[in-house]
Amino acid sequence: MRARPAPLVEPSAPLAPERIARFSRQIMLPGFGELAQRRLAAARVLVVGAGGLGSALVPSLAGAGVGTLGLADDDIVELSNLHRQVSHGVADIGRLKVDSLADTVAAIDPECRVVRHTERLSAANMRDILAGYDLVVDGSDNFPTRYLTSDAAVLERKPLVWGAILRYHGQVGLSWHEHGPTYRDLFPLPPAPDEVLSCELGGVLPTLCATVGALMAGEVVKLITGIGEPLLGRVTTVDALSGRSREIEYEAIADAPAITSLVDYELFCGVDDAAAQAAAASVPPISSAELLRRLRSGEPMHLIDVREPAEAALRRISGSELVPLGELVGGAVPDAGEGAIVVYCEFDVRSRRAARLLRELGHADVVYLAGGIDAFSSVAGELVHR
């Protein structure tokens, strides 16, 4: 069993009577007391990401009494965020997420100091930003930022609490090189860019943000105060569909290369300039939810089914034209239609090729349906006919 790390933060001055009253239900917890509350008051926590996880865990940290919260995010609030990023509201659409989240913190505890970092985090600025904090919490949604944050935490000798969510599943872990294995010991290399499924295309259950965010906030409180057993060398996974969680243990990689500096993490994760140019030249996907939205709004769209007739006989999206991929490759020209061309197949392997072919034939406004009719049928089954 690993030795329990000492409390991360030295306590602040004794609390004022009104602060004691505010946190009384927390102070009276066994093993907690005013001393732990004073440690929280003195703590400086950097939160990377003000989206689904950030908007769930930041209010919990503010409510617990963390004295200083740094919020790092350069994104703005969009309508599609609101189902899961519950610290933002309709009135916040178009605002910076850190500004919206800072208002949420102020409404919870005006004495909590908020520092806003709206610049994009990079190898050039990450260490300087992190140096002003006691620990970092990573609720980002992309691998370049995750590896950047992990490596910076190692170099700055700071603990990192991280979380990840997608669809119905979540993970929570703790990376702390001084006391145990790190994020890179669990994930030595990032997945290939074309293997990464985003929340936009994969979806996420909103309550999962609350569950994983609460677990992350709990790890932060434990580290600052020294209570409990931190998630060192362990990852908690959550399955929201079954209501089950499980624990995965892992160890440090003995011969892992030492982290000596920050690198270009876009390049490290395969998202370099060449890849970006290739992505820009390729055909973009459209999610099932976005296709449903466009169909409901009456936008002109031309749906092309590139499967075989036998497959189409089993189920098709209403109003689509059947042009099998083999016929497209052989020179078949689909009927001229209005609006964007949306190409789909059973999943999306054939539709990607068909969409590229149509683009090469001069059709500029072409997308392919991510996940194919298999994904769309679970989103809008009433539009899929047999």
What does this structure look like?
There is one protein chain. This protein has two domains: 17-275, NAD(P)-binding Rossmann-like Domain (Rossmann fold, 3-Layer(aba) Sandwich), CATH 3.40.50; 282-385, Oxidized Rhodanese, domain 1 (3-Layer(aba) Sandwich), CATH 3.40.250. Strands 3-2-1-4-5-6-7-8 form an eight-stranded mixed β-sheet, with helices on both faces. A five-stranded parallel β-sheet has the order 9-14-13-10-12. It is of the alpha/beta class and 386 residues long. The model is unreliable at 273-281 (pLDDT under 50). 37% of the residues lie in helices and 17% in strands. Helix 4 (54-64) packs parallel to helix 5 and helix 4 (54-64) packs parallel to helix 10 (206-225). It has 17 helices and 15 strands.
